[in-house]
UniProtKB/TrEMBL annotation:
<dbReference type="InterPro" id="IPR036249">
    <property type="entry name" value="Thioredoxin-like_sf"/>
</dbReference>
<dbReference type="InterPro" id="IPR004046">
    <property type="entry name" value="GST_C"/>
</dbReference>
<dbReference type="InterPro" id="IPR004045">
    <property type="entry name" value="Glutathione_S-Trfase_N"/>
</dbReference>
<dbReference type="GO" id="GO:0006749">
    <property type="term" value="P:glutathione metabolic process"/>
</dbReference>
<dbReference type="InterPro" id="IPR050213">
    <property type="entry name" value="GST_superfamily"/>
</dbReference>
<feature type="transmembrane region" description="Helical">
    <location>
        <begin position="6"/>
        <end position="27"/>
    </location>
</feature>
<dbReference type="InterPro" id="IPR036282">
    <property type="entry name" value="Glutathione-S-Trfase_C_sf"/>
</dbReference>
<protein>
    <recommendedName>
        <fullName>Glutathione transferase</fullName>
    </recommendedName>
</protein>
<keyword id="KW-0472">Membrane</keyword>
<feature type="domain" description="GST N-terminal">
    <location>
        <begin position="35"/>
        <end position="112"/>
    </location>
</feature>
<dbReference type="InterPro" id="IPR040079">
    <property type="entry name" value="Glutathione_S-Trfase"/>
</dbReference>
<keyword id="KW-0812">Transmembrane</keyword>
<dbReference type="Pfam" id="PF02798">
    <property type="entry name" value="GST_N"/>
</dbReference>
<keyword id="KW-1133">Transmembrane helix</keyword>
<dbReference type="Pfam" id="PF14497">
    <property type="entry name" value="GST_C_3"/>
</dbReference>
<dbReference type="InterPro" id="IPR010987">
    <property type="entry name" value="Glutathione-S-Trfase_C-like"/>
</dbReference>
<dbReference type="GO" id="GO:0004364">
    <property type="term" value="F:glutathione transferase activity"/>
</dbReference>
Length: 251
């Protein structure tokens, strides 16, 4: 007469079977890889750059369409929300860059940029929230010179607009930037590498594009060395740029 399996053996077998089933259903619920991806945005980094980096990191071929600002007023009328980027996946139009980069992070490549583990994904979302906080703080300083009416300003002269822009941006660098960078440094110190752990995620690419933009010299009254007091952040920017998957990127 055969003896019954030991409870521990049954438990081990059951756990293995459950894990195998989970992997099977996960792999089979993932959509087929797209045949054609087309990204349309201006010929700047902006909010589309995090997508470009995600595509490059995963080795995904995509058509990178750069539109001229002079063509935008007419094109704007055809956009769902009156804005770009526009992502076309096998002909299907996708909108909103945050939704796009989450989709790309999960369903392209191996999914590591937007992990499925609940706590790992929570951490990514926490850091995406930090990116949102920084953006909300910085946006009035950026758009005061570009779209002052949208920011609640009405200037009597160009000199007045320049003076207000200068004051707001210098105040941001002096008063707001240190706090934001402290938050970022706390995360980098905890992980020793990227903002969510040992490997990059969409949160790194999102924050990278925001933070690096201040150092490029095209924003008046924001010095290119504004990150010098934060060497941990500078080192993190360098780590992102040094990722072998981004080796073809011209910085």
């Amino acid at each position: 007469q055969n003896s019954a399996p030991m409870p521990s053996a049954l438990a081990t077998f059951g756990a293995a079977a459950a894990a195998a089933a989970a992997v099977y259903f996960y792999l089979n619920k993932r959509p087929a890889k797209p045949k054609k991806i087309k990204l349309t945005y201006f010929n700047i980094a902006g909010v589309a750059e995090k997508l470009r980096l995600a595509f490059m990191y995963y080795g995904v071929d995509f058509e990178d369409v750069r539109i001229d600002f002079k063509d935008w007023p007419q094109m704007k009328k055809t956009m769902k929300y009156g804005q770009v980027p526009l992502l076309e996946v096998d002909g299907q139009q996708l909108f909103q860059s945050g939704a796009m980069v989450r989709w790309a992070g999960e369903f392209l490549g191996d999914g590591s940029l937007y992990p499925s583990c609940p706590m790992a994904r929570y951490k990514v979302e926490e850091m995406m929230g930090l990116a949102d906080d920084i953006t909300r703080s910085w946006t009035p300083c950026l758009y005061v010179a570009m779209r002052p009416a949208d920011m609640g300003h009405s200037f009597a002269s160009d000199d007045e607009k320049k003076a207000t822009t200068k004051a707001m941006r210098e105040a941001f660098v002096k008063d707001s930037l240190p706090g934001h960078m402290k938050s970022l440094i706390n995360e980098l110190t905890a992980t020793g590498a990227f903002v969510c752990g040992a490997e990059p995620t969409i949160a790194d690419f999102t924050l990278f594009c925001i933070v690096r933009n201040w150092t490029l010299g095209h924003i008046d009254y924001v010095p290119t060395d504004c990150l010098a007091p934060f060497p941990e952040v500078v080192a993190w920017l360098d780590r992102v740029k040094a990722l072998p998957q981004l080796g073809a990127k011209k910085w």
